[in-house]
Amino acid sequence: MQHLDLQVIRQALQWSSTGQAVWLCTVLATYGSAPRAPGSLLAVNDQGQWLGSLSGGCVEDDFLERVALGEFVQPAAIVRYGDGSDPRSRVSLPCGGVLDVLVESLPSSCQVQDHLRQLESALLGQRRVLRQVKVPSGIQGLADAAGQGPRVHRDGDYVHLRVGAAQRLLLAGYSSVAQYCAEFAKAMGFEVVLCEPREEVLDGVQIDGIEIRRELPSEFIFNGGCHADTAVVALTHDPKIDDLAMLEAVRTAAFYIGVMGSRATSDKRRERLQRIGGLNADALDRIHAPIGLNLGSKTPAEIALAVLADVLRVRNGLDRAAL
Question: What integer pLDDT is reported at residue 96 of this predicted model?
């Protein structure tokens, strides 16, 4: 499946390459109820064509009207929608939310097109970058981004935007917990891939909107199935699936690697992975086992909630002590 942000950047690049001016809009912050998360993109060309989303309709209509009237000519501006405090917007969101949006006016130039190509590369998972935009000059910069953290950070006149591939959840094997993890993660905007080689286990399984691959998770990971924005979780209690997935996952840049099991089971698994798999202490430390936050979870849905909560904690750069 193709990440919407990737489609937006590719379309902006195509428009720019044919000599059209492009306005690139990025959601910076949301307050109250808002349908799109910080970092979400919208691109508009000088013909009024657009792709992407900021709010689900009302903000887009107002923005397109104002672009047609010749507004937003400065290289970069931050516009607030929703509370009436910004004279450049006259939209009150029906859900009562407020959006801060970065609006960049991008001329058709080789420099802009090179910048967009680098963003395309990041969104394909080839690298993760930290994009810097100065307001109102529109001066742009790109640097390699290490670790996890919020997608958007503002520092004075500068906006810092973390750009990477669509967040992916790789489920190593199917179980009732994996079913709930898939459904929860899909609702949160993750790409979800389930690798399950056991045909009898998949019999009758239906999860809309996820990719099911009938192969060992370790094979999928070995063949490039993980990037730096991938979380790998093993939830089967089958060592042939779970252990092999862990052995391959620690060799990737996956930001979260976890496997289900009690403390005693987890200790035995670490011993096996060290003795048979040859993993050193640093590699073993990357594995979250027991997986998830300690929420006192008992049912499959509760365990899945604890797993996804821990994935989000790591994705957002939070230490357990900060919770």
Answer: 62
Alpha-carbon distances, residue 8 vs 123, 180, 213 (angstroms) = 11, 30, 28
Sign of CA dihedral 55, 59, 61, 65: negative
**What whole-number distance in Å separates Cα of residue 207 and Cα of residue 190?**
14
Full residue range of the structural domain in which residue 278 is found: 168-322
Q: Residues 99-155: pLDDT tens digits?
A: 899 999 999 999 999 999 999 998 887 788 999 999 999 999 999 887 777 889 999
* 216 and 101, same domain (yes or no): no
Beta bridge partners of 194: 171, 212
Read off the pLDDT of residues 263-274 as tens digits, 9 standing for 90 and up: 999 999 999 999
Q: Domains in the chain: how many in total?
A: 2
**H or E element, residue 76:** strand 76-81
Collect all residues with Cβ–Cβ distance below 8 Å to 116 and sequence separation of at least 6: 9, 12, 13, 16
Domain boundary among 113, 138, 163: 163
- Of 189, 287, 99, the closest CA to residue 279 belongs to 287
Contact 236, 223 (CB under 8 A): no
> How much is the pTM?
0.74
Residues 260 and 316 in one domain: yes
Q: Is the dihedral of CA 223, 224, 225, 230 positive or negative?
A: positive
Which residue among 163, 186, 204 closes a domain? Answer: 163
**118 shares a domain with 33:** yes
pLDDT of 70 above 60: yes
Same domain, 197 and 103: no
Among 34, 177, 2, residue whose Cα is nearest residue 98: 34
